[in-house]
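Mods, move this if it's the wrong board.
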Amino acid sequence: MYKRVRLKDTVEVPPRHLADVTPERVKRLLQDKLEGRMDEDVGSVVSIAEVIDIGDGSVLPNRPGVYYEAEFDAITYDPHMQEVVDGIVVEVVEFGAFVGIGPVDGLLHVSQISDEYLAYDGENQQLASTESSDTLGVGDSVRVRIVTKSIDERNPRDSKIGLTAKQPGLGKHGWLQTEREERQATTEGN
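Not the wrong board. Structure tokens:
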């Protein structure tokens, strides 16, 4: 879920920029420091939207810059447990598919994709059903539910988000469209 949140953090303004401590300069420093970082409380910082206030600067011993406490609004993405999200398959591996959901990727394990057996086709970067013509590959749009979440603030790339598509209304968008059309044809035929 994307949110706009008000945060506070400290930024170091290097000596060469001390004559230019403006909201724009502080915003750029906050962007460099925080964008792409993961935080357990607010999620992944996607963008610094606006600097609201810049406090008085502080000098620390043996440090060349001046430190300013800044209050700012940020756009964050915080995946919630049981949230249904749309995403794009960014990688397919033997054990499942990695799905880009917002600024993070989640794992859609092969056991959570379909009730059908899906075989890994490494040459075509896809998982293919042995019972039907269904395939799931890189670039496919999917609707999934977040079922596990483990955030690693120190190494955001090590954060783990588990996904499922094995519930009604979830799965590859093409499969969902086909199901809708089949249901509609059945109800119109009766």
